[in-house]
Write a structure and sequence with these properties.
By secondary structure, the chain is mainly alpha-helical. The protein has one domain (1-30). The chain has 2 helices and no strands. It has helices at 2-6, 8-29. The longest helix has 22 residues, at 8-29. The chain starts with a helix and ends with a helix.
């Protein structure tokens, strides 16, 4: 996990993409 500690922006970007994908699927189900 040192890579995440050294590059927090990558971790933030990954969370943002996962969150965006989850919201897209959630909206598609409605």
């Amino acid at each position: 996990m040192t890579a995440i500690n050294q590059h927090p922006i990558f971790y933030y970007a990954t969370v943002l993409v996962v969150f965006d994908s989850a919201m897209t699927e959630f909206t598609g189900l409605q």
